[in-house]
Amino acid sequence: MSPVILILLAFGLSLLGWLAARSRAWAFRRADPKARLHSLPNFHGWYVALWIGVPALLFAALWSVISPMLITAHVMADPAATMLPAFGFERETLLAEARSVAQGNAFGVFNADAQALVGPYRTAITLYDSIGLVVTILVAFAGGAFAFLRLKPNFTARTRVERSVMALLLIASLVAVLTTIGIIASLVFETVRFFGMVSPIDFLFGTHWSPDPMSSGLPDGKDYGAIPLFWGTIYIGAIIAMLVAIPLGLMSAIFLTQYASNGVRKVVKPLLEILAGVPTVVYGYFAALTVAPLVRDAAQAIGISSASTESAVAAGLVMGVMIIPFVSSMADDSIAAVPQAMRDGSLAMGATTAETIRKVLVPAALPGIVAGVMLAISRAIGETMIVVMAAGASANLTANPFESMTTVTFQIVAMLTGEGSFDHPATLSAFALGMVLFLVTLTLNFIALRVVKRYREAYE
Amino acid sequence: MTDAAPVGERSEVQARRHAMMERGLAKRRSADRNFRWLGFIAVAFSGLMLLFLLVNMSSAGLAGFQRSELRFAIPIAGAMQIDAGRMSQPDPMGGLELAGLPRVVDDAAKAALGPDGADMVAEGAWREVAQKLIDNPQLVNGSIDVSLPASDDLASAQRGEGDAADRQVASKLVAEGKLVRAFDEGFLSRSDATSPQTVGIWGALKGSMLTMFITLILAFPVGVLSALYLEEYAPKNRWTDWIEISINNLAAVPSIIFGLLGLAVFLALFPNLRSAPLIGGMTLALMTMPVIVISGRNAIKAVPPSIRDAALAIGASKVQVVFHHVLPLALPGILTGTIIGMARALGETAPLLMIGMRAFVASPPSGFTSPSSVLPVQIFLWSDEIDRGFVERTSAAIVVLLVFLLLMNGLAIYLRNRFEKRW
User: Fold this and answer.
1) How far is residue B271's CA from residue B268's CA, in Å, rounded to a whole number?
2) A161-171: pLDDT as tens digits
3) Contacts of A434 in chain B (CB under 8 A)
4) Which of these, B278, B277, B276, B269, lies nearest to A66 by C-alpha position?
């Protein structure tokens, strides 16, 4: 049964409980008009509704996770399951086919062997679905009855309801912490498995990267040297992209804050923001289809014969354009935070606007600008689609920007979208790369936030 | 200074100093002008890049909304044993196939286009004829004029590619008015296919909508509630510090890392839901939630304390203050942030590749748990195809995606302007 039915059931029963409890509370009031209820009738309603809905929903969630396992176990116990292959892809396919026929998602089996399992599946699904339904209703009634019997005129329903609202708020805000823990745990877990097969030294300091997801046996550590990936990432994200983004972003911010009239600013700023809102897959397509051939032709015209269609410079240029609005809005904010008196003072001394900007505003805003640049770098090295589509797959340790280069994010995608099994070091290496990426971006963000915080204190 | 002294009484030295200063001033002024130009060029460059990108995509995209169509008439009456009543029974498509509609279409193509006619029509094109018959069963009794997609070879020949023989055939058909480039109304309503002539984006679009729905119903409540907690109730202690740090960090974590999380956690919990909108939505929700929290906190912070004080003063509880007064006032700001976060999630590709949403899915998803593609991933998959026809189709899909994003951003700007309050 789809969990949706159980969830709707839980909500429906909660609504009934809410209505019943509310009318009960009104009844208290009618029975004794002089006595004051501690809480408004609505709160009595909410109290009962919570006692019905929360346990039922928890059970429904739990059931939707464990019932497929129970169903599979039930089918496995059936005599028909003995003819299944011991394990592997074929077994999974047969089971999936039989299941989807039994659930009514497919009209017939493709594989005749799966037909024998459809019957057992159907019985098991009916059995566990009805168990789920009955238990959900029982849980809801038990909770509802418990809560309903406690209702009295002086019952502190409001306090209790508000306490659970606070709990809900706290749980919601803990989701972020759980996500962080989940990210770290999943990365660390798989990375440790990877480092069980490949030495961290080879990984972090090796200069040769050519993992083969199809190879068998213990890997040769020499194939997992990630230095070329780190270099490609830094070269594209932190060097080429920043050569484009920093000057253009900074100058745009200066022009828009210091020179442009209000009307121009109002039109141009949102336009720049559109540049940041374009999906990266579109930039990637643009880079691969339009910019890369242009770059190759230009390079060949000036006599660089090794220029290829997948080049670091095409990916870096487009990434730089993507980052411009990011740098410019950070620079914009920090220039605007410089006190007006400093600007006026410089102008009053007879400095031109350009001199004021270069010698007063930019130095004063520098910590904010640096922080913005660090955030921009962190964003550029974590960027995936542009490099996947335009940078190339070969791990080159070269300084020639017209050659193809590969990056950490490219390799994560390449390793995890291939055919390799989940226990293969090539697949696991993606998690180790993800770990490195996570740590590096985290460090950059952390430093940037620190710098911004410190800098803000200096003026306010 | 120098201006104060009468011109006639200026000494030689003074005059030279004055001229030097004039030169210096002129230099400084021109430096100022140059600097200003530099700024203008920077802005103009960004603007031109945007323009170049948009024009580039939309000019190719406009061609992608068209396809090469063959126009001829198909006599149904007499060629096929089926009556109009059959169309109202279950599986009319299968009934038409059994009755020999594919053969009828092939024969009609041969009659109209010459002996190779059957190969000129794209594979599976009879389904379009069948759909017409199902929509209007009376056509069974006569003959219908159709515009069917041409085969890939013929389509590329019409664009002036492919081998010479095909090109000759194509130009002959064009001259006869039987082969035309026409607006492909089915592009928005079909799904992925192997031939650029018969692909459509409805499957991916529907997958995107289902995914966005999951993202919204998960990220919005959690985001708003945690913003309320952090802004209104949270005591200053180590726990809430951790919560704040996590949220700020999550907002800056590269999206592909969320894909790794989804792969390691969600797909391990629900291995059967590979490439389902449910898993995609859950992954994107984790990514969108911090954005909503941060914008939500700013919106809540902007509600003046006097409103809270007034509500507390007339006896409201803290929960009532927040849910009856603060939240409604902050809602427009929260919604703006939510829409921007959703727009980002809509364009996101990398995390969805990680959780396996890159399969070839030829039918639109029927629900949250059925395999599906999403728009950006569809673009990515098509961009890998070599056929020129796919290049145009990819650009057309990009145009659709950009239109959606512009609409969402426009809505966010509208909300901000319409409901922004200053106290």
Assistant:
1) 6
2) 889 999 999 99
3) 256-257, 260
4) B269
